[in-house]
Amino acid sequence: MSLSFEENKKAATLLQQKVADELGTDDMGKACRVFRAVLHAIRDRLPVNEAVHFAAQLPIIWKGIFYDQYNPDRVPVKIRDRQEWLHYIRSKNAFAANNDFQQDEEIQQSYEAVLRVLQKFLGTEQLNKVQGFLSEEIREPVAAEQAADNSTKPPATYL
User: Fold this and answer.
1) Tell me, what's the pLDDT at 96?
2) Which residues of 133-151 are buried (b: 16+ CB within 10 A; e: fewer)?
3) Pick the CATH number of 5-149 from 1.10.490.110, 1.10.10.10, 1.10.150.120, 1.10.287.90
4) How many CB atoms sit inside 10 A of residue 103's CB?
5) Quick check: 35 and 114 in contact, CB under 8 A?
6) How far lies 102's CA from each of 98, 133, 147, in Å?
7) Which domain of life, per UniProt (predicted)?
8) What is the pTM of this model?
9) Confidence check: pLDDT of 141 > 90
10) 61-100 b/e (C-beta count within 10 Å ≥ 16 → b)
11) Percent of the chain at pLDDT above 70?
C-alpha cells in the first residue's frame, strides 16, 4: 500500500467540504473547527475499542485530528443530558466556542450537520452503532431524521 499525501489531503478536504456544505458555509476553517469539536466529543463518549474502530474509517488526516489530545484513561465521559452534551461539544474547541458556538442552537445544528455527513460517509448502520453509546437525549434529533430516511444505504464514496 503506497502512501500518497495528495490523495490523503484530497480525501480529508472532501470530507471537510461536505461538512461546510451541511453547515451552509463557504468557510472551510469553520467547517474544520466544527468537525473537529464534534469528532472529539463523540470520541470521548466512546469506549476505547469503539473509538479505534470509528477512527479507522476516517481519512488519515482526520484520524490524526481525531486522536489529537485523546486520553483513553478518561473515556467514556459521562453526559447526563442534552444541555451538558452541547456544553461538552463547545468545550472541545475554544476558538469555535467563541466564534462558531455562541448559542446552543448553533451547537445543535452543527452537531446534526456533522452526523449527517458521517451517516453518508460511514453508512447508517455504523452511525447507529456509534449513537448507541450516546444517551437518548443526545441522539434523538438525528434518530428522527434517520427514521424519515428509513434506509440502510451503504456508505457514500467520497474518494
Assistant:
1) 75
2) bbbeebbeebeeebeeeee
3) 1.10.490.110
4) 9
5) yes
6) 6, 26, 30
7) Bacteria
8) 0.85
9) no
10) bbbebbbeeeeeeeeeeebeebeebbebbbebbeebbeeb
11) 86
Question: Domain-by-domain residue ranges, the chain?
Answer: 5-149
Q: How many residues does the chain have?
A: 159
Furthest-apart CA atoms within the chain: distance in Å: 45
Average pLDDT, the chain: 87
Question: Which long-range contacts link 67-74 to residues 24+ away (Cβ below 8 Å)?
Answer: 68/36, 68/40, 69/40, 70/43, 72/48, 74/44
Q: State the pLDDT confidence band at 66, using cuts at 50, 70 and 90.
A: very high
C-alpha cell at 21: 456544505
